[in-house]
Request: fold
Amino acid sequence: MSKSTGNKGLTLNLKKDEVVCVGGEKNFDLYIIVKGKLLIMVNKGTQITPLAYLNEGEYMGELSFFDQKPRSAHVVCAEDTTLIKIPVEEINKQFPKWLTTMAVSITSRLRKVDELIGAKGIRKQKVDSVKPLSIDEQRKFFQILEDYTKEKGLSSIK
Reply:
């Protein structure tokens, strides 16, 4: 991973299969995708389930950015990717208090809906879903995530 600082934050140039964050990690920064693609996924044991792909112009980490709660999913680069990292400390510098309060409330609601969807297995009808990963792909991503957690001194994702 290479980093360069600029006026608008931190630019991260990541390679394919590099981890941005793992579920449960206490990393509260917001990331904007300048170039490339990210894969958002969750796991149950060694089973890896892809949730979404995010592309240029999209962002990730907004829930943790506002409520400073641990990440809810794993994020890995699906291809070489350039991100702009917006440090969580920018909230107090850039946003009025009323806007932050509103964002935290909305974030709480979104987390509750996500938990309900996960618990009930609710799926939207007639929506393109992300193709399941093969067993080999699941093994590969599980190992990538486990290596990342060991390197960072985090708990295993199992």
About this structure: The longest helix spans residues 97-120.
